[in-house]
Amino acid sequence: MGAFKAVLARDLRVAFRRWSELGHPLIFFVIVVTLFPLALSPTASQLRDVGVGVLWVAALLSSLLALDGLFRGDADDGSLEQLLLSPAPLTITVLAKVTAHTLVTLVPLICLVPLSALSFNIPFAALPTLALALLLATPTLSVLVALGAALTVSLRRGGSIVGLLVLPLTGPLLIFGTRATDLSVNGEPTAAPLLLLAALAALAVSLGPLAIAAAVKVGLE
Amino acid sequence: MTDRVLLKGRELAVWRGDRCLFEQLHFDLGAEQLALLVGANGSGKTTLLRILAGLGLPTRGSITWKDVAISELASEQRGEIAYRGHVEALKRDLTVAENLRFHATLWGRESRFDDVLEELKLDKVAHMRARHLSAGQRRRTALAMLKLQGAKLWLLDEPTTNLDGEGRALLVEWTRRHLASGGLAVIATHQPDELAMRGALVIEL
C-alpha cells in the first residue's frame, strides 16, 4: 500500500508541476465539440440528435491525446526500470500510475462534458445519466489507454499507433454510453446500459493491471 | 572472504541478430567480492548488467542469485539487488529530496538521508528541482539513491561518468565499505585502475 500511495503522490505532483500540459486534452475537446455545430446546420433539433454521439466520440479522442505521456516520461528517465526492479509488485505501481493519470486527465474531462452537453440542447434532466455513464466508462477507458501506452513504450514514436490500437477497443464503451444517454434524453429507463458499463469497468480494473504490468515488462526487455 | 557463492552465471551468451556479443561466460561472485566489467564500447557491458538485474534475458545460459533464477526472485530478494544505469531515474520536476524520499519508500526504506546528502555535498541543492542540477550532481543523486536502497548486490553501469575527482574517490570509498560489510558489486567501467581492489574479479567482454 505504501508503494501505491508513493507512486500516486509522485505522479500527481509531477503532473501539477507541469500543469500547462494538463489543459491540452480539455481544449482539444472544446474545439472539436465547437466545430460540429459550425459544420452542421445549427437547428436545435438536429444538434440534439447528433449531440450525444459527438460528445462521446470527442471525449474518447481527447482522452487519447494525453496518453503518450503515461509511461513515456518514466521510460525515458529510467524510473520505469526502477519501478520494475523494486520489491513493490508492478501491478500495484502500474495501477497507481493509471489512477493518477485518470485523476489528472479524465476527471476534468468528465466535468466538462455535461457543460458542453447544454450547448447541444441536450435536456438538463439527462445530464446526471450522461455524467454517470462517463464515470462508469472511465476505468475501462483508462485501462485500455494504459495498455496501449505500455505496449508502445519501447517505440520512439508510439503516439500515432496507440490510437490505432486503442480506438477500436473503445467500441463497447461508445455503444453503451451513447445508448444510456439517448434513453435518458427520451425519458426511458437507463439501468441496462449503465450496468453493462459497470461490468466492463469491473473487468478492466481487476484484470487490466496484470496485462499492463506484463506489457511494461515486455517493453523494457 | 567467504566461500559461499551468491551470484552465479553459467554459459551466458548474448546474440544481437547474427552478431555475438559474448558467449561461454562463467562467473561466481561471493560476499565481499567485486567484479569489474571491462570492454570496448558496444562489447555488451550494459547488456550483461541489465541481464544481471533481470531487465533482459540472455540468449543462452542462466544467472542465479542465492540459487534462484533472477527472473523468478521473490520480492524480498529482488530488494537485495540495486541497479543504477546510464540514466539516473530522477524526475526532473521534483526536488532532489522528493526524488530520494520516493525512492526510499519504493524500496520500503526509511527516508532519512541528511547524512548521505551531506557526504555527497548535495545538502545545498536538496530543495532544488532535479532539472536544474549539473550532470555531476545528477550522478551524485543517483549514488544517494543507491546508498538509501541498502541493497546487498550493487550493479553499476559506469558510475564514475561525470563525477569529479572527489566524487570518484567517494564512490571508491563507498564501494570498499559496501564490500567490507558483506556486500557484492558488479561495476562496468572504462577505468578499471580507479576501482581496482584486492581480489577483484575482472570480466573482460
Q: What characteristics describe this protein?
A:
heterodimer, A: 221 residues, mainly alpha, 82% helix, 0% strand, B: 205 residues, alpha/beta, five-stranded parallel sheet, 9 strands, globular
Question: Can you describe this structure?
Answer:
The complex is a heterodimer of chains A (221) and B (205). Chain A has 221 residues and is mostly helical. Chain A has one domain. Chain A has helices at 2-17, 19-39, 44-65, 69-76, 79-85, 90-119, 127-151, 159-166, 171-185, 191-220. The longest helix of chain A has 30 residues, at 90-119. The radius of gyration of chain A is 18 Å and the shape is elongated. The model of chain A has no long low-confidence stretch (mean pLDDT 90). With 205 residues, chain B is an alpha/beta fold. Chain B is built from 7 helices and 9 strands. The longest helix of chain B has 16 residues, at 165-180. The model of chain B has no long low-confidence stretch (mean pLDDT 90).
Strand count, sense and barrel status of the largest sheet of chain A are: none
Q: What is the β-strand count of chain A?
A: 0
Tell me the helix content of chain A: over 70%
Number of helices of chain A: 10
Helix content of chain B: 25-40%
Beta-strand proportion of chain B: 25-35%
Distance between the termini of chain A: 27 Å
What is the molecular shape of chain B? Answer: globular
* H/E element sequence of chain A: HHHHHHHHHH
Strand neighbour order, sheet with most strands of chain B: 6-7-8-3-9
The ordered string of helix (H) and strand (E) elements of chain B is: EEEHEEHEHHHEHEHE
Tell me the major beta sheet of chain B: 5 strands, parallel
